[in-house]
Amino acid sequence: MHLLKSPTAMRGDHPHHQKILKLAKPIAYLLLLLISFTLGYHSSSSPTISSSPPSFPPSAPILHQLASLPTNLDHFLLTTHCSPPLPPHLIRQTLLDHLFNSTSPFTNFPPPHAAPLLRRSRIKGWGSKGAVFQNLIQKLKPQTIIEVGTFLGASAIHMAELTHQLGLNTTQILCLDDFRGWPGFRGRFSDISLLNGDVLLLYQFMQNVVSVNATESVLPVPFSTGAGLDWLCQMGVFGDLIEVDAGHDFISAWSDINRAYRILRPGGIIFGHDYFTAADNRGVRRAVTLFARVYGLKIKFDGQHWVIDSS
Ligand SMILES: C[S@@+](CC[C@H](N)C(=O)[O-])C[C@H]1O[C@@H](n2cnc3c(N)ncnc32)[C@H](O)[C@@H]1O
Q: Which InterPro entries does UniProt cross-reference here (predicted)?
């Protein structure tokens, strides 16, 4: 008995076989389609993390799934190792050496061409004097504070005042901001001068710092948050307290929080604005929530601010 079928039968030359073969392909596609649809439906309809508040818009399950699959996050992980921490008392001089030719940017400030364009003091912020600042500074007694997003310096100046009141006279507040604001911000701040297309936000911030006599404790770090935070990591500049308040869309907040967390001194606190404001759902709340889930951290709240204590 031949176990092998005849070549004719194998090729399916018989009219009945031909019919079956013709149908087989579409049926197989249909089956595959049904199987993948069923699997996809079940996996997306049963999120592995409970949907407790805060609530998310319909696209959010993707974030939930990401948070529950750490392997997927490998794609997003940033450099995890910064240089060994610089001793806090060397941080200011290191920044002056590398960013400002070893001279304080406040020396001979303001330059004559800008002086007439600056207001003696023009301080405006958002939630910049919330109780959270006093609570955290009193608790931590930080030697190095890093602010990610400074604008006119309202929160930085408030922190400088708080540290002085507590007798923390050597505390440094590093203000990371590109000092560009955001497109259209001059609609509300038309009094901040524009010089050949260059808005004088850095100078007005510096003038504000001069006006409260805080030039020895506040230092601008005038770069984009991404480049600036990476550079601080590379230099081994760590913060005891880091405030994140720059871009409020999800991608910016997510990137800033991840980068900032790398340079948080063990036991330090990272916090930020807009967890509970009209701007929160632009992305800050989702970025903070995802970040805390991924790293297994607890988010606390203080007024409009979120707080993550690494201790
Ligand atoms: C809401 S304001 C900061 C307010 C300040 N913390 C206060 O309370 O007074 C946001 C600031 O982040 C800065 N910013 C936004 N995205 C940035 C980026 N990618 N790099 C650098 N600065 C950025 C803007 O220039 C702006 O000054």
A: SAM-dependent_MTases_sf
